[in-house]
What does this fold into?
Amino acid sequence: MRPTSARLLNILVPVKRTIDYAVKIRVNPDQKGVDLNVKHSMNPFDEIAVEEAVRLREKLKGEIKSIKVVTIGPPKAQETLRTALAMGADSGIHVEIPESAPSPEPLGVAKALQAVISKQAEPVDLVILGKQAIDDDSCQTGQMLGGLLNWSQATFASKLEVDPKTKEANVTREIDGGLEELKCKLPLILTTDLRLNEPRYASLPNIMKAKKKPIEKLTPADLGIDLTPRLETLKVVEPPKRVGGGKVENVDELIAKLKEAGITAVKA
It folds into this structure.
């Protein structure tokens, strides 16, 4: 039997609606951003985060009370929440911003998540989010959220084990030289790497059930935060097209080509 003092764990998973990873990105005519009139889907690293939360509940059997997903975005971002609910999350929170509003910066997102966590009726024990979003590639939100909350944090996780009795987590994370193992106390901020898991496809019955799962709607004003960007994009341009290479017959010809290009040898 469970001791009366024990408390089930609550997991929060932030997700983001981004341009689908398979779409070819095109710069807008005004060169202030990219064309957003294309297919969107859940940020792939966030899919991994949702999958890991659902797997934790399956593994720990009865130790997870709730998996809640949260997104900050325009009305269409609700589709991303429904996808996460179809994958196995229990409920969602949509911090809605106007369609014309710029995408919030990492610090604004971290402050919004901090406010969401503080508004929860029960304490959040684990926040699992993607290590980065594929649109801005900032890779900052998880770290900033950990700093704001003063919680343990483990980034670029490729393996997660949680002990609900001791309220500890063992995290294997990827570093330049290989793997690093961390033992963290809950509450914990965890950011996911590609090798953590492979997200499941939502089944049709679960997609239908997701339509009935509750989504709470909030605004930045409800959270007492300002998502106005601190940075201004001056210009967006496509990278220069790659020029095809050429073949040379010998070293002398290679040196001559390098000299023509203005490249000179440097003596060691």
Remarks:
- The mean pLDDT is 90.
- The chain is about 25% helix and 25% strand.
- Residues 9-240 form a domain with the Rossmann fold fold (CATH 3.40.50.620).
- The chain has one domain: 9-240.
